Amino acid sequence: MTALVRAAIEEHLDIVRYLTREGGADVDATNHRGGTILTRAAAEGRIALVQCLVEDCGARVNAVDRDGDTALLKAADERHLDVVRYLAVKCGADANVITTRGTTALMEAVSQGRIDIVRCLTEECGASVDVANGSGTTAVMLAAQSGNLHVVRYLATECRANVNATDKSGNTALMKAAVQEYFHVARFLAVDCKADVNITAATKAAGSFDVVRFLVDECRVDINATDISGATTLMSAAQHGRILTVRYLVDKCKADANAADKYGYTPLTKAAANGHFDVVRALASEYGADVSTVTNTGTTPLMLASRKGHVEIVRYLAVEHAVDVNAADISGTNALIIAAQYGHISVVRYLAGDSGADVNATNSTRTTALMTAAQYGNTDVVQYLVTQCRANVNAVNAGGYTAIRFAAEHGHKVIQRFLTRFLIVHQADDLETVTVRPVPSDATVNKAPSWFIHPSEISLVSFVETGNIGGEYKAKWLDADAAVKLFVPDASSHVTFEHEVHFWHRLRHPM
């Protein structure tokens, strides 16, 4: 810390003047964030120090830090009206400087709800009310989404801010107020300011019953019209779980409960995907929504509920409406495989244990729920499918992968070791049908074999350990003790079964 900074912090103004005038101290020197003594003083609202730095020491009022903030912006953000007025009115600080965040001093004041600073900046400092930040948001939009009606009214009526301006997502101030459920702001913009009211506004407003009812009853919005994505107001209300709004739209406005957007999503689909059980039940049981509707990718509401772990909705659709739990999307993926991928054990338990879902069903790549759970490291799902549902551990998909291979490739050692035991047991059951592989005894695996042991002569006794290459069984070959190694290659290697056997043979390991 320099002497100048210390003097400024302790507000020894005479020392500050001396150090900058006589001592050669740089009043505009910056800290590690690019801030100057002036920007700090402005942020802290120390008007006397600010005046001293500007008038007596020649500090630059428009100096910016690494975030693009000036002293004026700092003062506005921290709600120091006297500093704002001094810097902007007396010192001519630029009120329209835009920070690296895309904000202005006016936007900072609006965000703070400080109508006094807003007035000062617009009336005395020439701040532009329609400047937009990086996302296209203007000051009146910020005020609307914050519910500051007095600021919205001032900007719209006295400053003539453009209430129909849109941000980069196409949202207006009215839409932003509707999304945040500020009915009083939305009503003011629609009635007093004659802001454009369209279906997009109604869709955005779906979270607020009061705003939707106002737009329908007083603004005569067509409730079945769609926005650019094909979504209706009912879809938005269902997506956000607004049961009161859903009932109003269907009962009074006769909204179409089976309308679909451009992606094939219906109100029921959106409600199921977001876990809104009461909305799903109302749409399905009271309003005749199609429970087996599919999206453009063949996904059903039950699949979407499974993806998010909404077991109550999954159970309701399967039990009350007999939805097919084995239905698959265009990739052949069913609800059980989806739940296994995302690790939703409660959904897996219900589908596999209670609803009769096929645990060995495969998708278009012949991948099962067990393989999927092993790939994504969902240990509890793997254990349940194997121990409780007798999922086929030895199944191989189109790429030649088993569940244990998926676990090995993705580094899920716990799953790999768990599956090893069951893989060996299943292989032992089929021991008589194993194709006999000759085992080479010499140094080159490509030469003709000179010996082998028929699998039928091996009797497995007990599983004793797991290791990097899989596992080991105590066994009997005729009357001799033997060790049987399970070969599960490391995912990063290309070692073959023959190479591994040759390795053990060279070490004189019992076979």
From TrEMBL:
Keywords from the UniProt entry: ANK repeat, Repeat
InterPro entries documented for this protein: Ankyrin_rpt, Ankyrin_rpt-contain_sf
Domain of life: Eukaryota
Protein's name according to its UniProt entry: Uncharacterized protein
Spans traversing the lipid bilayer: none
Start-end of each ANK repeat: 263-296, 297-330, 331-364
Database matches in PANTHER family: ANKYRIN REPEAT CONTAINING, ANKYRIN REPEAT DOMAIN-CONTAINING PROTEIN 16
